[in-house]
Design a protein that fits this description.
Helices cover about 40% and strands about 15% of the residues. The relative contact order is 0.09. The chain is an alpha/beta fold. The strands form 3 sheets. A 5-stranded mixed beta sheet has the order 5-4-3-6-7, with helices on both faces. The protein has 3 domains: about 70 residues, Orthogonal Bundle (Arc Repressor Mutant, subunit A), CATH 1.10.10; about 60 residues, no CATH class; about 170 residues, Ribonuclease H-like superfamily/Ribonuclease H (Nucleotidyltransferase, domain 5, 2-Layer Sandwich), CATH 3.30.420.
Length: about 350
């Protein structure tokens, strides 16, 4: 059957048809090699090799497992692949999830990852009804959603931090180098980082922020100015607010070397709370607090009129932070994790 001197032109860039697959099945059963089959069909030998691999199934003959090529099997596989090529984009099948994502990203200031993570954690949509985080970002980049990149406050490039430590600023107390490893590796609950967030350069009305390192539970207080006296006053108010549970919630606190924290050690002198100071110009040593401050800026941007910021607004932002689904917590909220630790201690 093979025609070594055939003048038939090769069928370039064409898919095999069913009658050609039937011929392949016939020739294979009669002992023809792929090269001879390729010459008969006028195609490249690799085309035949791929076809044989695609359409061969395991058969047990006389107790032995062998591969046998079937034209119908190969055709069925090809038809299925063609159907998938022309299927509708997943974008058209996920309209409900994308509307849900738009609402959370625009109104609730959620990140795309938080939207996807929460949806999976709460089983709000089936896998076929939603997309992954990377795809959601691509849809935003392609302007397929109401949400735009400008709405994603945290979508920015970050330069690597310099790791050298400057020595031209004094450390106000016990250095972070003395902090136990159980605090550094977040294995123990109750250790916080503290910072001040300016509203304007005038330093009138600033936010005092504190975040617990394990649960990421946030405390935000609006104080009159960025001074040690105002910070001390806020700390003493928190001691009264938390009462007997204060030393559980505040086992230690880590701050920078700003003058507003100069009296921090004296604020805790009658408690078991330890105070540690980070190295000068080393904000990455309080990374959880820095990230939290960036999330606060979604609602209270830099340069806002201090008079427009009220305690009620601050409480709303604090509540949002503590109920935000966090990837680091498996998309649980800080409030949930904080409550688990404090309730188990109370029990």
């Amino acid at each position: 059957m093979a025609q070594t001197d055939s003048n038939t032109s090769k069928n370039k860039f064409k898919h095999l048809l069913f009658h050609q697959r039937t011929l392949i099945e016939f020739m294979v059963r009669n002992g023809y090699k792929p090269a001879a089959i390729a010459r008969e069909l006028g195609v490249n030998r690799s085309t035949v090799s791929r076809e044989l691999k695609r359409g061969s199934v395991k058969q047990i003959i006389a107790g032995k497992t062998v591969l046998k090529y079937f034209a119908e099997t190969a055709q069925e596989i090809t038809d299925r692949k063609k159907a998938n090529v022309w299927r509708k984009p997943k974008f058209l099948n996920c309209s409900e999830f994308l509307s849900h994502a738009d609402k959370l990203m625009k109104e609730e200031k959620y990140s795309p990852d938080a939207v996807v993570g929460q949806a999976k954690d709460l089983d709000l949509f089936s896998p076929q009804e939603m997309v992954c985080t990377n795809t959601l970002y691509r849809y935003i980049d392609a302007d397929l959603l109401m949400t735009r990149n400008i709405d994603l406050v945290s979508k920015m490039s970050r330069k690597p931090k310099n790791t050298h430590t400057r020595t031209n600023k004094r450390i106000l107390g016990k250095s972070i180098d003395e902090r136990p490893e159980e605090i550094n590796d977040r294995s123990v609950f109750g250790h916080r980082e503290i910072d001040c967030v300016l509203l304007k350069k005038t330093k009138e009305k600033v936010l005092l922020t504190m975040i617990e390192r394990v649960s990421r539970h946030s405390i935000i207080r609006l104080i009159e100015s960025k001074t040690a006296a105002c910070v001390s006053q806020a700390i003493r108010a928190l001691q009264k607010e938390y009462g007997t549970s204060f030393e559980t919630v505040f086992q230690s606190i880590t701050s920078d070397n700003g003058s507003e924290f100069a009296d921090l050690t004296s604020c805790f002198e009658h408690t078991a709370t330890e105070v540690y100071y980070a190295h000068p110009f080393s904000s990455w040593e309080r990374g959880a607090n820095e990230q939290n401050n960036g999330m606060i800026r979604r609602f209270i941007p830099k340069g806002i009129d201090p008079q427009s910021v009220t305690p009620e607004m601050v409480r709303r932002v604090e509540s949002w932070l503590n109920h935000y689904p966090r990837k680091v917590l498996g998309y649980a909220s800080s409030f949930d994790v904080f409550y688990q630790y404090t309730s188990s201690h109370a029990a």
